[in-house]
Amino acid sequence: MTAPAILRLKKDEDRRIRAGHLWIFSNEVDVRATPLSGLEPGQPVEVQDSRGHFLGSGYANPRSLITVRLLSRKKGQALGPVLLSERLGHALGLRERLHPGEPFYRLCFGESDGLPGLVVDRYGGVLVVQATTAGMERVIEAVVEALVDLVAPEGVLLRADTPARELEGIERYVRTAYGDVPDRLEILENGVRFGVPLREGQKTGWFYDHRVNRRRLARYVTDSRVLDVFSYVGGWGVQAAAAGAAEVVCVDSSAAALQLVDENARLNDVSARVSTILGDAFEVLDTLRGQQARFDVIVLDPPAFIKRRKDQKQGEQAYRRLNLAALELLPEGGILASASCSFHLSRDMLLRTILWAAERTGRQVQIVEEGHQAPDHPFHPAIPETNYLKTFFVRVLR
After folding, report:
1. Which residues of 70-107 are buried (b: 16+ CB within 10 A; e: fewer)?
2. Which of 31, 80, 293, 324 has the most other CB atoms within 10 Å of its CB?
3. Whole-angstrom distance, CA of residue 175 vs CA of residue 182
């Protein structure tokens, strides 16, 4: 095996790494002592502090702002079959403890499970794998072999089509890496059945991170009229109907997603209480407001409006506009479940956004619950970027 390249950090740039973070940025590397220009994307490296003391091993990509992702604090421990099997085994142990006998969960969550750049979602007998970095792409076949040995799946699908791969300089593709993978299969979440599109759906096909928050919503929806905005395939809305909502309206800009809402409603015998609206969420909310529509419960689960710092101002405006429109559709006693998956919108900023919308609409509000990402999406205590999901359950007063 080829010896890893050496990268040395500038003076005092090791503090965050010694505190547990796994990312090293390009401006932290002493390129005079250890140039980046000769490295290949995904090449194994050992990282030293400014005095030459070993800090950790990982892989590098000179094309990326995150130049190094660390894997181990042990010298000589490389990303390969042994490390992959060990880390994936530890990750599986947590998920089996969380969901005994129900194999529907995020099996691996990147840095939080010690495998930066790797996401694995489990859909019963099928695994969907996303490698978002050049370093993980280099060992993707070993990843598949480790997963096959670990859980003996019927099939493994590689969804290597995330935009993040372009930043890493690696191609995007979707292919079956092992066994047979259907275009669609069925999962169970909180006792409700869903058909999930694996090849054409968003991300890996489903969003397990809101599992607990969707369970929380059930206590508020009995005999209520519910609006599910950015519904995708009905994760919130169909579960609300199954929990006893009198009427659920799902809004999404994707006709294919709304077709699956209808199918998932039929799957759970709640079709009579679930309807859909195809359109841009902001435009639909404006139309409903013009019609003086009222809903007892509204769910706002938008995509990440702030993916990068440059999106901050525009993204914050979008969150304000969205929450303002929702509050105007809620009566006294109504419940708003307002979520954000944008790491760059902090928990406190989302709370301020809700308060701003309440003030603009002349309402008082209570926060009755606060939700986070489900425990199969653990966050790394030294990497705040892994703690991204926040949800407030808001009760509207006079």
Report:
1. bbbeeeeebbeeebbbebbeebbebbeeebeeebbbbb
2. 324
3. 12
> Out of 2.40.50.140, 3.90.79.10, 1.10.150.130, 2.30.130.10, which CATH number does the structure's domain 5-72 have?
2.30.130.10
Give me the amino acid identity at 45.
V
Token digits of residue 242:
């199954």
Query: Does residue 167 contact residue 181 with C-beta atoms inside 8 Å?
Result: no
Q: Given 3.30.110.30, 3.30.750.80, 3.90.960.10, 3.40.720.10, which CATH number is that of 81-181? A: 3.30.750.80
Cα-to-chain-centroid distance, residue 354: 22
From the candidates 47, 251, 341, 396, give the one annotated as an active-site residue.
341
Instruction: Evaluate whether 344 touches 313 at the Cβ level (below 8 Å).
Output: no
Identify the CA nearest to 43 among candidates 23, 55, 59. Answer: 59
pLDDT digit string, tens, across residues 126-163: 999 999 999 999 999 999 999 999 999 999 999 999 98
| C-beta neighbour count of 171 within 10 angstroms | 10
Sign, CA torsion 38/42/46/52: positive
Which of 70, 330, 377 is CA-nearest to residue 204? 377
Distance from C-alpha of 25 to C-alpha of 398, rounded to nearest angstrom: 49
Residue ranges per structural domain of the chain: 5-72, 81-181, 186-396
Q: How far apart are CA 121 and CA 103, in angstroms?
A: 10
Nearest to 5 by CA among 36, 28, 49, 51: 36
Could you read off the pLDDT of 170-227 as tens digits, one per residue?
A: 999 999 999 999 999 999 999 999 999 999 989 999 999 999 999 999 999 999 999 9
pLDDT value for 199: 93
Q: What is the pLDDT of residues 45-101, one digit of tens each?
A: 999 999 999 999 999 999 999 999 999 999 888 899 999 999 999 999 999 999 999
Is 250 an active-site residue? no
Which two tokens mark 212? 């607990």
